[in-house]
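ingest -> fold -> write
write: protein_1
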Amino acid sequence: MNKSPKQISLEKMILTELTGKPHEAATAIFADPEVQALQDYANNVSIKRLGYNDHGPVHMRIAALNSLRMLSLLDESKIILNLEKEKCGSFEDSQVAVVIASLLHDIGMTVSRDKHEFMSISLAMPIINRVLDQVYPDVINLRMIVRSMAIEGILGHMATQTIHSLEAGIVLVGDGCDMEKGRARIPQLISDKPQIGDIHRYSSTAIKKVMFSKGVERPIRIEIIMSQSVGFFQVEQVLFPKIKSSPAKPYIELYAGIEGEETLKYI
């Protein structure tokens, strides 16, 4: 498998965040050549065919890392996730579901942008099954529960379908938080003609940093720093609607602003 230095670096960062079963699940996905092929081709369709920004292996790893960092902040604040609250699993099992969903949520872009979350589920099913067979070889009930949770995470990442678990809500927000300027670098380089998706590329280019920290009033603080005001499009039209529709919304503070100026509090 041909992996970029950025992709390899992100994989190391993700694995540093994990132990036990979540570490095993992420390692299995990173070593799966089918996953790599799907992620690479998803980027081909997104960037070369449609002129959109990154929807490939780097994006999916950033989404996973974002989601895992938010899970850690929730855990630090003693927020109980759905699997544990409903006595169906542990925090570790929630991490497994979130990392799988985050790393596979956009592989449906290989087929179509329209309703690609459903395509992602279809393509992800055999991958999810073999990863969970490895991680939970002797626990059928838990394997099916974590699989359903991972599928909910994939289903909900576009905010077009109603989701109800905190785990899926974190996947939704983690995906939306991949908005730094590097995500638009490739489409900017390969095209100098106006086309569909330009506002996403230009607004993404304005985003300098997305930071996660413990909030003052809520467990998670997300702060977006941008170089110019066009970046507010990403915040207001992409990220904010995702947070509003996410079950994780009650636990998130969102701030955004131009570098050197006072940040605006959204929630």
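write: protein_2
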Amino acid sequence: MELVTKSKRKGMNCSIDVFYEQSEGFSKHLNDKTCYKIVLLYSGSFVVKDNGKYLSISTPAAILINEKSDFEIISEENVKCRTLFFRPTIIREEFTIEAINSRRYDKFMSALKDPGVLDRQKMEHLINDDIQFEDCFSNQMIYQDALYFLELFSTGRDIVYYSLTKQEYDTVRRHFFSIEYEINAQPDNFWILRTRYFIQSILFMATADFYRNFRQDDIYDDPLVAKVTRYFWEHIDEDITLDSILKVFSVNKNYLNDAFNKEVSMSCMAYLEQLRINLAKSELQYGNHTISEISVGVGYSDTNYFSKVFKKHTGMTPSEYLKQMRGLC
């Protein structure tokens, strides 16, 4: 399959290195070695093996993948996603994958990530003679444009995972819908420019706005722990008992708790409780649901019991925590 979009407009005999796909489950082209990918996950959860470690990822989430990646799914449940395939030449003709991999922008990226980046002298010292400070920020836009790919080639990882807040997810989803419309409908001769703009906007968000919350930092050595935590996220609002976990994963209690204690220094059910309280804190801080709705949403049908567990972890009741968070805003 050729991951490009050809112009359907009369008089425009061209194609762009962009392709859009919506699928249940992951696209079979995720390990294509000729392009980058941005995946927007809006349903389900999965466990992935990454550099010998195991990650448990739940939606909503985004994944940035470069051409070197070897995306290895261990297990997945109800995954639905939208995938954008593109080559960096969509931003600038000079940005071939070979040019990006030539490391000609490494000095500039190192300077930007340095804690002393605001120190002009330190910045000039870090950038070599071929890339002058003024060139980077005024005379040659190419170095500023290279920042769009900061997360794809300067992090040392071929795949980067992000949890998304509701606001971030809504914004990225709108950009994906806009790209889908532009490359399919091609309403006028400016559809390529608008496609480029929406891709730039997503990449900018990845570089400047996305943040990882505790979900995407959970990297495990034991695939069982990753699978169980993925199950927790998928069924967080349900009545999960230790017996039900043992039955689902066909494992005994001691083996399961030993695995969790080795990975996260607590038992399986203690981890679930902490997970629920962390999610409740996030909902209280960023969401607009009532305390009783949040209680049910994180698996506690009894709001009074939820309040007791919440206070045990935070020293405050949910209403006290909510009042404190609003006082900070």
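write: annotation protein_2
The chain has a mean pLDDT of 83.
The first helix runs from residue 97 to 101.
pipeline exit 0
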